[in-house]
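Notebook B, p. 112. Complex prediction, attempt 2.
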Amino acid sequence: MPRLLALSGSLRARSSNGAVLRSALELFDGPTATADIGALPHFNPDLDGEDATPPAPVAALRTAVAGADALLVVSPEYAHGVPGVLKNALDWLVSSGECVGKPVAVITASPSPTGGDHANAQLRETLRMMTGNVIADACRELPAIGPKIDPTAERVADEPTLTDLRTAMSHLAAATTPATPAGPLTTP
Ligand SMILES: Cc1cc2nc3c(=O)[nH]c(=O)nc-3n(C[C@H](O)[C@H](O)[C@H](O)COP(=O)(O)O)c2cc1C
């Protein structure tokens, strides 16, 4: 079964995108894990050259991405852009190659009617530039997300949204070939 690693662009404890992420992972047919990207240092190529040893959180993230068969990126939009913490994580992955050819789904959720469409488009563009395999049928912009979240369960509670997420995750799984033999799915 394909192994899925998720990254969230929100560090908020009560994040609506975190709730979307958890619901999406529960609808994916295969092992899943979530990367903690909040402790990554700011990207600095000086720390990442041929003679440098990458910082431990960076090495852990790269190991986790390498051990996954597909990626799920779930994020809010800030000022019509990608949250800095998420762009920072992707910057650490640009030249190390773990994303190359890997199926990726991008989901943005927002209280606004646009569903974070600017951030969604920017993330897809960045991931395509990184030669990730962005699966368009698995990407979603989720508008007016607030009332669709159950704050106690910290999951999506809205049935049409859950149905849509199930469809998105099945498209991602269908586009993913599990590695043989499958290694461990680690969490940085
Ligand atoms: C500084 C800031 C900028 C924001 N900019 C946008 C924006 O450009 N577009 C948008 O749809 N929502 C914007 N929002 C609203 C976020 O989508 C909203 O706070 C959302 O709940 C954050 O996601 P989270 O619940 O997963 O943390 C912004 C929020 C903040 C705090």
